[in-house]
Design brief:
Belongs to the 'phage' integrase family. XerC subfamily. The protein is mainly alpha-helical. The chain has helices spanning 7-26, 37-49, 59-78, 105-115, 121-136, 140-144, 174-192, 212-225, 241-254, 259-266, 271-274, 282-292, and strands at residues 151-152, 157-161, 167-171. The mean pLDDT is 86.
């Protein structure tokens, strides 16, 4: 809570520490002071293998769990509850950086059009939601948490609250504003009439704030209608809200946007996080080099 973490992150840390507590109890360790570095290391091994009876975790999930454990021990030591931090030398597993799978511009167009089934309030909402996600690169939690007062059509910008409730203002293109205005004028009032007047922009059929799970379902249904859920060249195709975030960043960089601008748009704390998208645009980089450098061609 002191760090301003999101409810989803707090819930994940609670699950992680619950598994750790069960692991320690199984080893008859009943107080934090009795934990040793060997115990923490053994827990990390159990996370990867499932030796503790839990589900084996991928490196990314195991890394998050170990981070939660290290944070707990660091807190106990700082508060004087324990004399030492047994997790200080235990490093989370290295997570390989996979390049995000971005949609092509044509695939995004098909996806957005597939959300526009008819002129019903739900269809207007779905189109506006997906247009906003792609136009701003917003996280799904940021989009469903958006309230009406966060919108500023006059400036063409909206206010998003990211991880740790960090606020940022991002511009949004006219296509997305048109879709959002159509929903606000013809769709949202109908949905809101069934509820109790909540301020969130995106509502469900009961007039309540749209959940992350429901927003995910909106995307999945549109992807199916657009024919984007079958196998790709690698034998798989998974469309998620983060796919639109990846696509937005990739298309911005391919269009010539500065990486620092994209960092600000996405709300990344470090530019190194944003730079992973630059690898996706290597074909564009090669093309620009071939047409621009005086000695690129023989």
């Amino acid at each position: 809570m002191e760090r301003g973490l999101s409810p989803n992150t707090l819930a994940a840390y609670e699950r992680d520490l619950g598994r750790y507590a069960d692991f320690l109890r199984a080893r008859t360790i009943l107080t934090p002071a009795a934990v040793t570095e060997a115990d923490v290391t053994a827990f990390l091994e159990a996370l990867r293998t499932g030796a503790d009876g839990g589900r084996p975790l991928a490196a990314s999930s195991a890394s998050r769990t170990v981070t939660a454990v290290r944070g707990w021990h660091k807190f106990l030591h700082a508060e004087g509850i324990t004399d030492a931090d047994p997790s200080a030398a235990v490093r989370p597993p290295q997570v390989g950086r996979r390049l995000p799978k971005a949609l092509t511009v044509d695939e995004v167009r098909r996806l957005l059009e597939a959300a526009d089934v008819d002129d019903s309030p739900v269809s207007l909402r779905d189109r506006a939601l997906l247009e906003l996600l792609y136009a701003t690169g917003a996280r799904i939690s940021e989009a469903v948490g958006l309230v009406v007062d966060d919108l500023d059509a006059e400036s063409g910008c909206l206010r998003l609250f990211g991880k740790g409730r960090k606020e940022r203002v991002v511009p949004m293109g006219q296509f997305a504003w048109d879709a959002l205005e159509a929903y606000l004028v013809r769709g949202r009032p109908v949905l809101a009439a069934k509820g109790r007047g909540v301020p969130e922009v995106f509502l469900n059929t009961l007039g309540r704030p749209l959940s992350r799970q429901s927003a995910w379902a909106v995307l999945q249904q549109a992807a199916q209608r657009a024919g984007l859920t079958g196998a790709d060249a690698q034998g798989e195709r998974h469309i998620s809200p983060h796919t639109l975030r990846h696509s937005s960043a990739t298309h911005l960089l391919a269009g010539g946007a500065d990486v620092r601008v994209v960092q600000e748009m996405l709300g990344h704390a470090s530019v190194t996080t944003t730079q992973i998208y630059t690898k996706v645009t290597v074909d564009h980089l090669r093309e620009v080099y071939a047409t621009s450098h005086p000695r690129a061609r023989g």
